[in-house]
Amino acid sequence: MLRKVGKIMMRPVLVGALLGAAAGVPAAAPPATEATSSGCLSGSCHAEIGALKHRHGAVAEGGCLACHSGSDADHRSRGGKGFTLASKGSELCRRCHSVPGKKKVVHAPVREGECTCCHAPHGAAGAHLLAQQGDLAPLCLGCHDKAPFTRKHLHGPVAEGRCDACHDPHESDNKKLLSKQGRELCLSCHEDFARKMQKARVVHPPLVKELCTSCHDPHGSDQESLLRQAMPQLCVGCHKEIGDKIKKVKVPHQPVVQGKGCSSCHSSHFSDTEGLLNGADQRRSCLKCHNSGKLGDPPLADMEKELAGKSNLHGPIKKGRCTGCHDPHGSNYPRILAGNYPSEFYAPYRADSYSLCLRCHDKNLLNFPETTIYTRFRDGSRNLHYVHVNSSKGRSCRACHESHASDGQKLVGVEGSRFGEWRVKTRLQLTHTGGSCAPGCHRRYSYDRASKKHDQAAPL
Fold first, then answer.
1. Half-sphere exposure of 95 (CA within 13 A, CB side)
2. Rg (CA), the chain
3. Cross-referenced Gene3D superfamilies, in alphabetical order (predicted)?
4. Are 231 and 263 in contact, with CB atoms under 8 Å apart?
5. Which end of the chain is more exposed for a tag (fewer CB within 10 A), N or C?
6. What's the helix, strand, coil split of the chain in %, to 5?
7. What whole-number percentage of the chain has pLDDT above 70?
8. What Å distances lie between residue 439 and 310, 345, 392, 406, 415, CA to CA?
9. What are the pLDDT digits (tens) for 64-80?
Protein backbone atom coordinates (compact mmCIF):
# COMPACT_ATOMS: atom_id res chain seq x y z
CA MET A 1 0.00 0.00 0.00
CA LEU A 2 1.28 3.46 -0.91
CA ARG A 3 1.26 6.40 1.49
CA LYS A 4 1.99 10.06 0.73
CA VAL A 5 4.78 11.78 2.69
CA GLY A 6 5.49 15.38 1.74
CA LYS A 7 5.60 15.49 -2.07
CA ILE A 8 6.78 11.93 -2.75
CA MET A 9 4.81 8.66 -2.86
CA MET A 10 6.71 5.92 -1.08
CA ARG A 11 6.26 2.49 0.56
CA PRO A 12 7.25 1.66 4.13
CA VAL A 13 10.90 0.70 4.06
CA LEU A 14 11.49 -2.99 3.60
CA VAL A 15 13.91 -4.42 6.10
CA GLY A 16 14.48 -7.88 7.39
CA ALA A 17 12.90 -11.09 6.31
CA LEU A 18 12.74 -10.46 2.57
CA LEU A 19 16.42 -9.73 2.21
CA GLY A 20 17.92 -12.48 0.10
CA ALA A 21 14.76 -14.65 0.26
CA ALA A 22 13.03 -16.12 -2.78
CA ALA A 23 9.82 -14.43 -3.88
CA GLY A 24 6.86 -15.48 -1.74
CA VAL A 25 9.01 -17.60 0.61
CA PRO A 26 9.41 -16.05 4.07
CA ALA A 27 12.82 -16.20 5.69
CA ALA A 28 14.01 -15.74 9.21
CA ALA A 29 14.45 -12.07 10.20
CA PRO A 30 18.16 -11.28 9.80
CA PRO A 31 20.03 -8.93 12.11
CA ALA A 32 20.05 -5.20 11.26
CA THR A 33 23.44 -5.00 9.55
CA GLU A 34 24.56 -2.48 6.90
CA ALA A 35 24.52 -5.22 4.27
CA THR A 36 21.02 -6.28 5.26
CA SER A 37 19.63 -2.72 5.33
CA SER A 38 21.10 -1.81 1.97
CA GLY A 39 19.07 -4.60 0.45
CA CYS A 40 15.94 -2.47 0.98
CA LEU A 41 16.95 -0.48 -2.10
CA SER A 42 17.30 -3.53 -4.32
CA GLY A 43 15.59 -3.73 -7.67
CA SER A 44 12.75 -5.86 -6.40
CA CYS A 45 11.94 -3.58 -3.45
CA HIS A 46 12.53 0.15 -2.94
CA ALA A 47 14.64 0.90 -6.00
CA GLU A 48 12.89 4.25 -6.57
CA ILE A 49 14.38 5.52 -3.31
CA GLY A 50 17.84 4.46 -4.35
CA ALA A 51 17.46 6.39 -7.61
CA LEU A 52 16.84 9.73 -5.88
CA LYS A 53 19.54 12.37 -6.37
CA HIS A 54 19.69 13.37 -2.72
CA ARG A 55 19.11 10.67 -0.14
CA HIS A 56 18.63 10.98 3.60
CA GLY A 57 21.94 10.23 5.31
CA ALA A 58 20.60 7.13 7.03
CA VAL A 59 19.27 5.81 3.70
CA ALA A 60 22.51 6.54 1.85
CA GLU A 61 24.45 4.66 4.53
CA GLY A 62 22.02 1.75 4.53
CA GLY A 63 20.81 2.54 8.03
CA CYS A 64 17.07 2.02 7.52
CA LEU A 65 16.80 0.67 11.06
CA ALA A 66 17.84 4.07 12.42
CA CYS A 67 14.23 5.14 11.81
CA HIS A 68 12.31 1.89 11.31
CA SER A 69 12.02 -1.01 13.73
CA GLY A 70 10.75 -4.37 12.58
CA SER A 71 9.16 -7.26 14.45
CA ASP A 72 7.58 -9.28 11.65
CA ALA A 73 9.72 -11.25 9.25
CA ASP A 74 6.83 -11.56 6.78
CA HIS A 75 7.30 -7.91 5.76
CA ARG A 76 6.68 -8.11 2.01
CA SER A 77 3.77 -10.50 1.97
CA ARG A 78 1.91 -8.43 4.58
CA GLY A 79 2.14 -5.14 2.65
CA GLY A 80 4.88 -3.68 4.81
CA LYS A 81 2.89 -3.80 8.05
CA GLY A 82 5.56 -5.63 9.91
CA PHE A 83 7.58 -2.45 10.51
CA THR A 84 6.90 0.65 12.58
CA LEU A 85 8.67 4.02 13.04
CA ALA A 86 11.04 4.12 15.96
CA SER A 87 9.36 7.36 17.21
CA LYS A 88 6.50 9.57 16.16
CA GLY A 89 6.62 12.95 14.41
CA SER A 90 9.59 15.22 15.02
CA GLU A 91 10.74 13.03 17.89
CA LEU A 92 12.01 10.62 15.28
CA CYS A 93 14.03 13.42 13.63
CA ARG A 94 15.38 14.54 17.00
CA ARG A 95 17.12 11.20 17.43
CA CYS A 96 19.75 12.50 14.98
CA HIS A 97 18.96 16.14 14.22
CA SER A 98 18.86 19.21 16.42
CA VAL A 99 15.31 20.22 15.51
CA PRO A 100 14.74 24.02 15.66
CA GLY A 101 11.91 25.62 17.56
CA LYS A 102 13.31 27.81 20.34
CA LYS A 103 13.25 31.27 18.73
CA LYS A 104 10.47 33.86 18.95
CA VAL A 105 8.80 32.89 15.67
CA VAL A 106 8.59 29.23 14.66
CA HIS A 107 7.29 28.02 11.32
CA ALA A 108 3.98 26.22 11.92
CA PRO A 109 5.08 22.78 10.59
CA VAL A 110 8.17 22.94 12.82
CA ARG A 111 6.10 23.94 15.83
CA GLU A 112 3.67 21.09 15.17
CA GLY A 113 6.43 18.54 14.61
CA GLU A 114 5.51 17.97 10.96
CA CYS A 115 8.98 17.87 9.40
CA THR A 116 7.70 15.78 6.50
CA CYS A 117 5.41 18.61 5.38
CA CYS A 118 8.46 20.05 3.69
CA HIS A 119 11.15 17.35 3.77
CA ALA A 120 10.93 13.91 2.22
CA PRO A 121 12.17 11.40 4.82
CA HIS A 122 14.00 9.12 2.39
CA GLY A 123 15.26 11.34 -0.41
CA ALA A 124 14.34 13.94 -3.01
CA ALA A 125 15.41 15.63 -6.23
CA GLY A 126 16.41 18.80 -4.37
CA ALA A 127 18.98 19.43 -1.67
CA HIS A 128 17.89 19.30 1.99
CA LEU A 129 15.44 16.56 1.03
CA LEU A 130 13.19 19.10 -0.68
CA ALA A 131 11.07 18.20 -3.67
CA GLN A 132 12.88 20.58 -6.07
CA GLN A 133 16.31 22.08 -6.50
CA GLY A 134 16.39 25.86 -5.87
CA ASP A 135 12.76 26.76 -6.67
CA LEU A 136 10.86 26.58 -3.39
CA ALA A 137 7.68 28.17 -4.76
CA PRO A 138 5.74 24.94 -5.40
CA LEU A 139 6.52 23.76 -1.87
CA CYS A 140 5.76 27.05 -0.08
CA LEU A 141 2.64 27.77 -2.11
CA GLY A 142 1.21 24.45 -1.07
CA CYS A 143 0.23 26.30 2.13
CA HIS A 144 0.69 30.03 1.45
CA ASP A 145 -1.57 32.29 -0.63
CA LYS A 146 -0.58 32.34 -4.30
CA ALA A 147 -2.03 35.81 -5.10
CA PRO A 148 1.10 37.93 -4.32
CA PHE A 149 3.13 35.69 -6.60
CA THR A 150 0.97 36.09 -9.70
CA ARG A 151 1.33 39.85 -10.16
CA LYS A 152 2.90 41.73 -13.05
CA HIS A 153 6.14 42.61 -11.26
CA LEU A 154 7.87 40.17 -8.90
CA HIS A 155 10.71 40.67 -6.44
CA GLY A 156 13.82 38.96 -7.81
CA PRO A 157 14.06 36.20 -5.19
CA VAL A 158 10.31 35.54 -5.56
CA ALA A 159 10.62 35.21 -9.33
CA GLU A 160 13.29 32.55 -8.79
CA GLY A 161 11.35 30.79 -6.06
CA ARG A 162 14.01 31.57 -3.48
CA CYS A 163 11.79 32.25 -0.48
CA ASP A 164 14.75 31.37 1.73
CA ALA A 165 16.61 34.47 0.50
CA CYS A 166 14.51 36.49 2.96
CA HIS A 167 12.78 33.95 5.22
CA ASP A 168 14.22 31.31 7.49
CA PRO A 169 12.20 28.15 6.83
CA HIS A 170 12.37 26.96 10.44
CA GLU A 171 12.54 29.77 13.00
CA SER A 172 13.61 33.35 13.55
CA ASP A 173 13.67 36.09 16.16
CA ASN A 174 12.11 38.40 13.56
CA LYS A 175 8.51 38.71 12.41
CA LYS A 176 7.44 36.75 9.32
CA LEU A 177 10.42 34.42 9.86
CA LEU A 178 12.66 37.06 8.27
CA SER A 179 16.34 36.19 8.40
CA LYS A 180 17.25 39.79 9.34
CA GLN A 181 15.34 42.76 10.67
CA GLY A 182 13.46 45.05 8.28
CA ARG A 183 15.72 47.50 6.48
CA GLU A 184 18.83 45.50 7.35
CA LEU A 185 17.45 42.60 5.32
CA CYS A 186 16.72 44.75 2.26
CA LEU A 187 20.09 46.49 2.36
CA SER A 188 21.96 43.21 2.65
CA CYS A 189 21.22 42.82 -1.09
CA HIS A 190 20.71 46.44 -2.15
CA GLU A 191 24.25 47.41 -1.20
CA ASP A 192 24.61 50.15 -3.83
CA PHE A 193 21.44 51.77 -2.50
CA ALA A 194 22.83 51.65 1.04
CA ARG A 195 26.09 53.34 0.03
CA LYS A 196 24.34 56.18 -1.80
CA MET A 197 21.86 56.69 1.03
CA GLN A 198 24.69 57.12 3.55
CA LYS A 199 26.20 59.92 1.44
CA ALA A 200 22.92 61.70 0.60
CA ARG A 201 22.19 65.10 2.15
CA VAL A 202 18.41 64.57 2.32
CA VAL A 203 16.75 61.22 3.11
CA HIS A 204 13.01 60.60 2.85
CA PRO A 205 11.82 60.29 6.50
CA PRO A 206 9.94 56.98 5.97
CA LEU A 207 13.21 55.44 4.86
CA VAL A 208 14.64 56.22 8.30
CA LYS A 209 11.58 55.73 10.50
CA GLU A 210 9.55 53.07 8.66
CA LEU A 211 10.10 49.73 6.96
CA CYS A 212 10.73 49.49 3.24
CA THR A 213 7.52 47.49 3.07
CA SER A 214 5.57 50.64 3.97
CA CYS A 215 5.80 51.57 0.29
CA HIS A 216 6.96 48.38 -1.43
CA ASP A 217 5.38 44.94 -1.50
CA PRO A 218 8.23 42.49 -0.84
CA HIS A 219 6.70 39.78 -3.02
CA GLY A 220 4.96 41.26 -6.03
CA SER A 221 2.91 44.16 -7.34
CA ASP A 222 1.10 45.33 -10.44
CA GLN A 223 2.98 48.64 -10.04
CA GLU A 224 6.55 49.25 -11.12
CA SER A 225 9.22 49.14 -8.41
CA LEU A 226 6.93 46.83 -6.41
CA LEU A 227 4.96 49.83 -5.12
CA ARG A 228 1.91 49.04 -3.03
CA GLN A 229 -0.09 51.69 -4.93
CA ALA A 230 0.39 53.81 -7.99
CA MET A 231 1.64 57.36 -7.56
CA PRO A 232 0.34 59.83 -6.46
CA GLN A 233 -2.08 57.68 -4.41
CA LEU A 234 0.81 56.07 -2.53
CA CYS A 235 2.43 59.41 -1.66
CA VAL A 236 -0.71 61.28 -0.62
CA GLY A 237 -1.39 58.59 1.95
CA CYS A 238 1.11 60.55 4.04
CA HIS A 239 1.15 63.89 2.21
CA LYS A 240 -2.57 64.45 2.73
CA GLU A 241 -2.48 68.23 2.22
CA ILE A 242 -0.99 67.79 -1.24
CA GLY A 243 -3.48 65.00 -1.95
CA ASP A 244 -6.39 67.31 -1.15
CA LYS A 245 -4.92 70.02 -3.36
CA ILE A 246 -4.47 67.68 -6.34
CA LYS A 247 -8.16 66.71 -6.11
CA LYS A 248 -9.42 70.29 -6.00
CA VAL A 249 -7.19 72.38 -8.26
CA LYS A 250 -8.37 73.55 -11.67
CA VAL A 251 -4.90 73.25 -13.19
CA PRO A 252 -2.95 70.18 -11.99
CA HIS A 253 0.72 69.87 -12.81
CA GLN A 254 0.58 67.13 -15.43
CA PRO A 255 3.60 65.09 -14.24
CA VAL A 256 1.88 64.68 -10.85
CA VAL A 257 -1.18 62.96 -12.31
CA GLN A 258 0.35 61.26 -15.34
CA GLY A 259 3.27 59.00 -16.17
CA LYS A 260 5.69 58.45 -13.30
CA GLY A 261 3.71 60.69 -10.98
CA CYS A 262 5.59 62.18 -8.04
CA SER A 263 8.84 60.52 -9.06
CA SER A 264 8.90 62.68 -12.20
CA CYS A 265 10.26 65.46 -9.97
CA HIS A 266 11.15 63.82 -6.67
CA SER A 267 13.50 61.06 -5.66
CA SER A 268 11.52 58.60 -3.58
CA HIS A 269 14.40 57.73 -1.28
CA PHE A 270 17.17 60.31 -1.03
CA SER A 271 18.65 63.33 -2.75
CA ASP A 272 21.24 66.04 -2.35
CA THR A 273 18.55 68.65 -3.01
CA GLU A 274 15.96 70.14 -0.68
CA GLY A 275 12.53 68.60 -1.24
CA LEU A 276 14.09 65.35 -2.50
CA LEU A 277 14.20 66.80 -6.01
CA ASN A 278 15.89 64.67 -8.62
CA GLY A 279 17.87 67.62 -10.01
CA ALA A 280 20.70 69.72 -8.64
CA ASP A 281 18.13 72.36 -7.63
CA GLN A 282 14.57 73.39 -8.47
CA ARG A 283 15.65 75.13 -11.62
CA ARG A 284 17.52 72.14 -13.01
CA SER A 285 14.66 69.82 -12.02
CA CYS A 286 12.12 71.94 -13.88
CA LEU A 287 14.33 72.34 -16.95
CA LYS A 288 14.51 68.57 -17.38
CA CYS A 289 11.05 68.91 -18.93
CA HIS A 290 10.71 72.59 -19.76
CA ASN A 291 13.45 72.59 -22.36
CA SER A 292 11.69 71.84 -25.62
CA GLY A 293 8.94 74.38 -26.27
CA LYS A 294 6.63 71.45 -27.07
CA LEU A 295 4.92 70.85 -23.74
CA GLY A 296 1.31 71.89 -23.24
CA ASP A 297 -1.42 73.25 -25.47
CA PRO A 298 -0.65 75.96 -26.38
CA PRO A 299 3.01 74.99 -25.99
CA LEU A 300 4.90 76.30 -23.00
CA ALA A 301 8.02 78.33 -23.58
CA ASP A 302 11.39 76.64 -23.95
CA MET A 303 12.63 77.91 -20.60
CA GLU A 304 16.15 76.64 -21.04
CA LYS A 305 16.47 78.69 -24.20
CA GLU A 306 14.72 81.67 -22.60
CA LEU A 307 17.12 81.74 -19.66
CA ALA A 308 20.31 80.89 -21.53
CA GLY A 309 22.90 83.66 -21.38
CA LYS A 310 20.55 86.30 -19.97
CA SER A 311 22.29 88.91 -17.84
CA ASN A 312 19.30 89.57 -15.54
CA LEU A 313 17.22 86.86 -13.92
CA HIS A 314 14.01 87.27 -11.97
CA GLY A 315 14.81 87.01 -8.25
CA PRO A 316 13.26 83.57 -7.60
CA ILE A 317 14.96 82.08 -10.66
CA LYS A 318 18.27 83.62 -9.67
CA LYS A 319 17.89 81.72 -6.40
CA GLY A 320 16.93 78.57 -8.32
CA ARG A 321 13.39 78.60 -6.88
CA CYS A 322 10.72 78.25 -9.56
CA THR A 323 8.22 77.73 -6.75
CA GLY A 324 8.47 81.44 -6.02
CA CYS A 325 5.80 81.87 -8.70
CA HIS A 326 4.60 78.37 -9.61
CA ASP A 327 2.95 75.71 -7.46
CA PRO A 328 4.56 72.42 -8.53
CA HIS A 329 1.57 70.28 -7.59
CA GLY A 330 -1.33 72.27 -8.97
CA SER A 331 -3.09 75.61 -8.92
CA ASN A 332 -6.34 77.37 -9.68
CA TYR A 333 -4.43 79.79 -11.91
CA PRO A 334 -3.07 79.31 -15.45
CA ARG A 335 0.46 77.92 -15.78
CA ILE A 336 0.14 76.59 -12.22
CA LEU A 337 0.92 80.09 -10.97
CA ALA A 338 0.69 80.74 -7.26
CA GLY A 339 -1.56 83.78 -7.75
CA ASN A 340 -3.26 86.05 -10.28
CA TYR A 341 -1.17 87.38 -13.14
CA PRO A 342 -3.00 88.84 -16.16
CA SER A 343 -2.30 86.95 -19.37
CA GLU A 344 -3.32 89.86 -21.63
CA PHE A 345 -1.46 93.04 -22.58
CA TYR A 346 -4.36 95.15 -21.29
CA ALA A 347 -5.97 94.13 -18.01
CA PRO A 348 -8.53 96.23 -16.05
CA TYR A 349 -7.13 96.81 -12.59
CA ARG A 350 -8.72 94.97 -9.66
CA ALA A 351 -7.56 94.55 -6.10
CA ASP A 352 -6.38 90.95 -6.70
CA SER A 353 -5.28 91.35 -10.34
CA TYR A 354 -1.62 91.06 -9.42
CA SER A 355 -1.72 88.83 -6.36
CA LEU A 356 1.18 86.81 -7.80
CA CYS A 357 3.55 89.76 -8.15
CA LEU A 358 2.48 91.33 -4.87
CA ARG A 359 3.51 88.22 -2.95
CA CYS A 360 7.03 89.69 -3.10
CA HIS A 361 6.64 93.27 -4.31
CA ASP A 362 5.15 95.89 -2.00
CA LYS A 363 1.37 95.48 -1.78
CA ASN A 364 0.95 99.26 -1.95
CA LEU A 365 2.80 99.50 -5.24
CA LEU A 366 -0.39 100.06 -7.27
CA ASN A 367 -2.66 101.68 -4.69
CA PHE A 368 -1.47 105.31 -4.47
CA PRO A 369 -1.17 107.83 -7.31
CA GLU A 370 1.36 109.75 -5.20
CA THR A 371 4.11 108.16 -3.13
CA THR A 372 7.74 108.56 -2.19
CA ILE A 373 8.25 105.13 -0.63
CA TYR A 374 6.34 102.36 -2.44
CA THR A 375 8.14 102.49 -5.81
CA ARG A 376 11.26 103.95 -7.40
CA PHE A 377 9.46 104.24 -10.75
CA ARG A 378 8.12 107.74 -10.21
CA ASP A 379 8.48 111.30 -11.35
CA GLY A 380 8.92 113.21 -8.15
CA SER A 381 6.11 111.71 -6.11
CA ARG A 382 3.99 110.70 -9.08
CA ASN A 383 3.64 106.90 -8.99
CA LEU A 384 4.28 105.78 -12.57
CA HIS A 385 3.37 102.13 -11.79
CA TYR A 386 -0.02 103.43 -10.72
CA VAL A 387 -0.29 105.51 -13.91
CA HIS A 388 0.41 102.53 -16.17
CA VAL A 389 -1.57 99.85 -14.36
CA ASN A 390 -4.33 101.26 -12.20
CA SER A 391 -7.00 102.13 -14.79
CA SER A 392 -9.80 100.50 -16.75
CA LYS A 393 -7.29 99.88 -19.55
CA GLY A 394 -4.31 99.17 -17.42
CA ARG A 395 -1.14 97.77 -18.92
CA SER A 396 -0.22 94.47 -17.32
CA CYS A 397 3.28 93.84 -16.00
CA ARG A 398 4.10 91.90 -19.13
CA ALA A 399 3.71 95.08 -21.24
CA CYS A 400 7.17 96.14 -20.04
CA HIS A 401 8.74 93.31 -18.06
CA GLU A 402 9.83 89.77 -18.81
CA SER A 403 8.68 87.24 -16.22
CA HIS A 404 11.80 85.08 -16.14
CA ALA A 405 14.89 86.73 -17.58
CA SER A 406 16.08 89.56 -19.75
CA ASP A 407 19.19 91.31 -20.97
CA GLY A 408 17.48 94.58 -20.12
CA GLN A 409 17.67 96.24 -16.72
CA LYS A 410 14.71 95.84 -14.36
CA LEU A 411 13.74 92.77 -16.43
CA VAL A 412 12.53 95.13 -19.16
CA GLY A 413 12.44 93.16 -22.40
CA VAL A 414 15.01 94.24 -24.99
CA GLU A 415 12.98 92.76 -27.84
CA GLY A 416 9.80 94.23 -26.41
CA SER A 417 6.49 92.66 -25.46
CA ARG A 418 4.23 91.12 -28.07
CA PHE A 419 1.31 93.25 -29.14
CA GLY A 420 -0.28 91.15 -31.86
CA GLU A 421 2.39 90.87 -34.54
CA TRP A 422 4.29 93.89 -33.25
CA ARG A 423 6.97 94.08 -30.58
CA VAL A 424 6.59 97.05 -28.23
CA LYS A 425 10.15 98.03 -27.34
CA THR A 426 10.55 100.26 -24.28
CA ARG A 427 13.96 101.72 -25.22
CA LEU A 428 14.59 102.25 -21.53
CA GLN A 429 17.49 104.47 -20.51
CA LEU A 430 18.26 104.75 -16.79
CA THR A 431 19.89 107.55 -14.86
CA HIS A 432 20.99 107.76 -11.24
CA THR A 433 17.64 109.18 -10.12
CA GLY A 434 15.30 108.04 -12.87
CA GLY A 435 15.43 107.58 -16.63
CA SER A 436 13.38 107.71 -19.80
CA CYS A 437 11.61 105.44 -22.25
CA ALA A 438 10.09 105.60 -25.74
CA PRO A 439 8.03 102.43 -26.18
CA GLY A 440 5.95 103.34 -29.21
CA CYS A 441 2.96 103.81 -26.93
CA HIS A 442 4.09 107.39 -26.51
CA ARG A 443 7.01 109.63 -27.35
CA ARG A 444 10.08 109.57 -25.13
CA TYR A 445 9.27 110.73 -21.64
CA SER A 446 11.74 111.15 -18.81
CA TYR A 447 11.20 110.81 -15.10
CA ASP A 448 13.23 111.90 -12.08
CA ARG A 449 12.54 110.82 -8.51
CA ALA A 450 14.37 113.92 -7.21
CA SER A 451 12.23 116.31 -9.29
CA LYS A 452 9.67 118.52 -7.61
CA LYS A 453 7.83 119.01 -10.88
CA HIS A 454 6.13 116.30 -12.97
CA ASP A 455 6.87 115.75 -16.65
CA GLN A 456 3.98 117.28 -18.55
CA ALA A 457 3.23 114.09 -20.43
CA ALA A 458 -0.18 113.28 -21.82
CA PRO A 459 -2.06 110.74 -19.67
CA LEU A 460 -1.40 107.13 -20.67
1. 13
2. 40
3. Cytochrome C3 (3.90.10.10), Flavocytochrome C3, Chain A (1.10.1130.10)
4. yes
5. N
6. 30, 15, 55
7. 87
8. 21, 14, 20, 16, 11
9. 888 888 666 566 656 66
